[in-house]
């Protein structure tokens, strides 16, 4: 039996570099950083003063009834807004999409962190206490809230799933959604990721892990520097990207525009450590190999690789080793970039924004840069072509994006230029 093909017919984005797909892509192409001084809370008690915040966000501008999402957490608002964009971009209305065999799959790692922080503040306040905790704390903080509210706001009564595999959540969500369409469980599926973890509580928790950059508070745009010798940790980001995935014949029948095809998906686990990746990259390499096998293509056919590229010593070396293992000699010819150098790390939404970047790179024939590579860490093992500082034109027929999360979760997507 011929396998059902899955294509992308709509995209929506709320990100630190722009609150639409086109704005975000143009800023990424141009190497513009979305990282700045934290404004969402007073970071005075922390050694980290910077993050990649979403700016000028107003959910009303996306045509959503604000009362419907007023009592939701920030990560959900982002997801609903990105979903509204993707639905419109795909040529659907709320009514026409609800009539389809639909689904929603959203990756999220941290959930409603501002709700968690507010509740703990009340709990610890001797004049307030547990009985003064906000009554909506539970539905605001749990990670399934985004998927559930997308379904509620748009009347989507098919599958509605939340997926948490840490930093791999967004990629795994897209891969799972594609597999559901392939399996005939739905014809269209909104999928991607969302996160809003720029709070004192969550930043402090990553500070204690020594995972965040602390050396660039005065020059935030320089702080995320994947594969550079001076990298010292990742930058927390926030936002949401949602894609409309659709079975090919279904999309063609309604005359939908097609951006690209989800050709392959691979997932693996290092089964090694809760925070540290395998130094040899073998776990990540397995996910890459499985994605290539699923797509039915060889490593040499990948024209662009969007790196997980977190700007941490452990990730950047391990990921480089993974590429060498999965691609062999073709790794030396591969166009690579880490767009986290501009967007920061969107955690559960990272794989989604990076899938969007792959789609735009294919459509525009352009490899975006990794900014801030001033002194590439070749001696440390980061010796591939990471497209330093300036993007380049390239004919890209297939792109790959990998997301590598705490717990050893690895997810990889292969996205191809659409062809009949």
UniProtKB/TrEMBL annotation:
InterPro entries: 3-oxoacyl-ACP_synth-2 (IPR017568), Beta-ketoacyl_synthase (IPR000794), Ketoacyl_synth_AS (IPR018201), Ketoacyl_synth_C (IPR014031), Ketoacyl_synth_N (IPR014030), PKS_Beta-ketoAc_synthase_dom (IPR020841), Thiolase-like (IPR016039)
Active-site residues, record numbering mapped to chain: 167 (for beta-ketoacyl synthase activity)
Reaction it catalyzes: a fatty acyl-[ACP] + malonyl-[ACP] + H(+) = a 3-oxoacyl-[ACP] + holo-[ACP] + CO2; (9Z)-hexadecenoyl-[ACP] + malonyl-[ACP] + H(+) = 3-oxo-(11Z)-octadecenoyl-[ACP] + holo-[ACP] + CO2
PROSITE patterns referenced in this protein's UniProt entry, alphabetically: KS3_1 (PS00606), KS3_2 (PS52004)
Protein name from the UniProt record: 3-oxoacyl-[acyl-carrier-protein] synthase 2
Pathway in which the depicted protein is active: Lipid metabolism; fatty acid biosynthesis
SMART domains in the cross-refs: PKS_KS (SM00825)
Gene Ontology biological process: fatty acid biosynthetic process
Residue ranges of domain Ketosynthase family 3 (KS3) in the record: 3-417
GO cellular-component term (any): cytosol
Source organism per UniProt: Treponema saccharophilum DSM 2985
A molecular-function term among this protein's GO annotations: 3-oxoacyl-[acyl-carrier-protein] synthase activity
Annotated keywords: Acyltransferase, Fatty acid biosynthesis, Fatty acid metabolism, Lipid biosynthesis, Lipid metabolism, Transferase
Protein purpose: Involved in the type II fatty acid elongation cycle. Catalyzes the elongation of a wide range of acyl-ACP by the addition of two carbons from malonyl-ACP to an acyl acceptor. Can efficiently catalyze the conversion of palmitoleoyl-ACP (cis-hexadec-9-enoyl-ACP) to cis-vaccenoyl-ACP (cis-octadec-11-enoyl-ACP), an essential step in the thermal regulation of fatty acid composition.
EC number annotated for this UniProt entry: 2.3.1.179
């Amino acid at each position: 039996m011929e396998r059902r093909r899955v294509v992308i017919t709509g995209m929506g984005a709320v990100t630190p570099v722009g609150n639409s797909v086109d704005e975000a892509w143009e800023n990424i192409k141009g190497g513009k950083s979305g990282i700045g001084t934290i404004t969402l809370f007073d970071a005075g008690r922390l050694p980290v003063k910077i993050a990649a915040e979403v700016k000028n966000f107003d959910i009303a501008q996306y045509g959503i009834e604000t009362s419907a999402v007023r009592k939701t957490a920030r990560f959900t608002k982002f997801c609903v807004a990105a979903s509204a964009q993707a639905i419109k971009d795909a040529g659907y209305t709320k009514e026409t999409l609800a009539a389809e065999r639909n689904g929603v799959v959203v990756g999220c790692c941290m959930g409603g962190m501002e709700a968690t922080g507010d509740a703990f503040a009340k709990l610890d306040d001797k004049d307030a206490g547990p009985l003064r905790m906000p009554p909506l704390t539970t539905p605001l903080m749990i990670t399934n809230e985004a998927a559930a509210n997308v379904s509620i706001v748009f009347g989507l009564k098919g599958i509605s799933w939340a997926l948490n595999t840490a930093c791999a959540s967004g990629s795994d969500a897209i891969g799972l959604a594609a597999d559901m369409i392939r399996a005939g469980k739905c014809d269209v599926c909104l999928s991607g990721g969302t996160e809003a973890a720029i709070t004192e509580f969550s930043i402090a928790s990553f500070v204690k892990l020594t995972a965040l950059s602390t050396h660039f508070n005065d020059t935030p745009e320089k702080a995320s520097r994947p594969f550079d010798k001076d990298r010292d940790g990742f930058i927390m980001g926030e936002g949401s990207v949602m894609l409309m995935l659709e079975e090919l014949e279904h999309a063609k029948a309604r005359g939908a525009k097609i951006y690209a095809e989800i050709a392959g998906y691979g997932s693996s686990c290092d089964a090694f450590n809760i925070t540290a990746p395998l130094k040899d990259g073998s776990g990540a390499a397995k996910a890459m190999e499985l994605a290539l096998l699923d797509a039915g293509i060889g490593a040499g056919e990948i024209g662009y690789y969007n790196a997980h590229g977190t700007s941490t010593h452990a990730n950047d070396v391990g990921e480089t080793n993974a590429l060498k293992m999965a691609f062999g000699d073709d790794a030396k010819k591969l166009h690579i970039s880490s767009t986290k150098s501009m967007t920061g790390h969107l955690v559960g939404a990272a794989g989604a924004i990076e899938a969007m970047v792959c789609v735009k790179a294919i459509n525009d024939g352009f490899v975006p840069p990794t900014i801030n590579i001033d002194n590439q860490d070749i001696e440390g093992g980061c010796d591939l072509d990471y497209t330093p500082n300036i993007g380049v034109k390239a004919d890209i027929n297939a792109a790959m994006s990998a997301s590598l999360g705490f717990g050893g979760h690895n997810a990889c997507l292969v996205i191809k230029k659409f062809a009949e």
